[in-house]
Amino acid sequence: KVGGYGEKILDEFPKECVSFGQYRDDGEPLWVVVFHSFQESHDCMMEYTLNNKGPMGPNLFKMICRISYDYIFNQAKLLRCSSVCRISNKASLKITKAIGMKQEGIKRLGFKIPQPEDMVLFGMLKEECPWI
Q: How far is residue 19's CA from residue 110's CA, in Å, rounded to a whole number?
């Protein structure tokens, strides 16, 4: 299963993506960041997951942000990055704001799996990034 939604979500995930991550000692992912839907020299979507069973201290959190934004703004040379969260996922909304992204809007019923739900749109411009 992926993201708890099963195989159906795999069909909707872009085939071309870049990902970074780290495994725990037991082989489970500790964190994963995926970049996809690249718009040349402009934007990409960033999705991430943090395993709540691992040691997620402030130093690890800062490292994840530095790796992610270094890739987006220095290596891929994009002007911005985007992310989306379910409006009901309070933890994800909090973390997305903590990594420095700004809320840009709400796409009504933007998610359809496993049930229709509003999508919160986030973005960050290179000049706003505190991590690089």
A: 24
Q: List Cβ neighbours of 109 (8 Å cut-off, separation of 6 or more).
A: 116, 117, 118, 119
> Quick one: which H or E segment has residue 84?
strand 80-86
Model confidence pTM above 0.90: no
Q: Provide the residue count of the chain.
A: 132
| Predicted confidence band of residue 23 (pLDDT cuts 50, 70, 90) | confident
Residues β-bridged to residue 39: 43
What percentage of the chain exceeds 70 in pLDDT? Answer: 86
Both tokens of residue 48? Answer: 């991430």
3-class SS of residue 117 = strand
DSSP code of residue 20: E
